[in-house]
Amino acid sequence: MSTNGRGSRHEQDDVSRTSVAYLILGYENNRNAIIGFFRNAKSSANWVTDAIQPTVGSNIDWLWKEISDARRRGVKCRQLADITKDNLSHCKKNMARLDEFRHMGGMAVNFGISDTEALVIAPSLAPREELEKIQFIYSDSESVVEFKRRCFDLLWDRAIPAQTRVNELEAGGGESLAAAPATQTQTVIIDRIHSCMECKQTFVYQHEVDEHRRAIGHKNFRAFPVV
Fold first, then answer.
1. What pairing do the DSSP bridges indicate for beta strands 76-81 and 44-49?
2. Are 100 and 78 in contact, with CB atoms under 8 Å apart?
3. For the chain, what are the domain ranges?
4. What pLDDT is recorded for position 35?
5. What is the rounded CA–CA span in Å between residue 193 and residue 195?
6. What's the CATH number for 20-177?
7. How far apart (Å, rounded) are the C-alpha atoms in residues 203 and 216?
8. Which of 51, 100, 181, 207 to pair with 75, CA 20 to 30 A apart?
């Protein structure tokens, strides 16, 4: 199956093609997978990132060329990221190059979702600045894409506009409006969503699960990793 980034693995007339999910090996193959992700997008290309990605990705010219080309084709490009003091300048730069940008503190995952594809940065001990060592997990499985889309929509609806977060930081604030209460010894990390199996409500934070359990009395919950 091709990974040349030209969309050949998505020929719509190939009714026998089987949906897949696999780890992409090698820098060029990963680069081509990202290119293909944007070139194959029809109406939307959305991605969620931690606080590191905006800094690492803001100066990758070939990436932003693909995003710009996608937007010219009418693809809506949106990013949700953890905006901090350290990546503020890069996020402001990226805000001007996207259709929408939102913030949620504590994001610990990196994934993209389009109309028909999902890309996830595979966990690694390598520094993220070493781009040649970043590997993606790719899938065009309908069930995987639908799950990632639900994750994105849940997080997006809870996030705040990037400009609001920028204003907070430039005014000297640190704590985000889009963050769960954290203790002095524990930082809130978002890497999974929680679902009540009795009423089907979904939650981002553990404290929301605890409050729902106390208020409603439901006890059957499941946690689903976002990536």
1. parallel
2. yes
3. 20-177, 191-227
4. 96
5. 7
6. 3.30.870.10
7. 14
8. 51
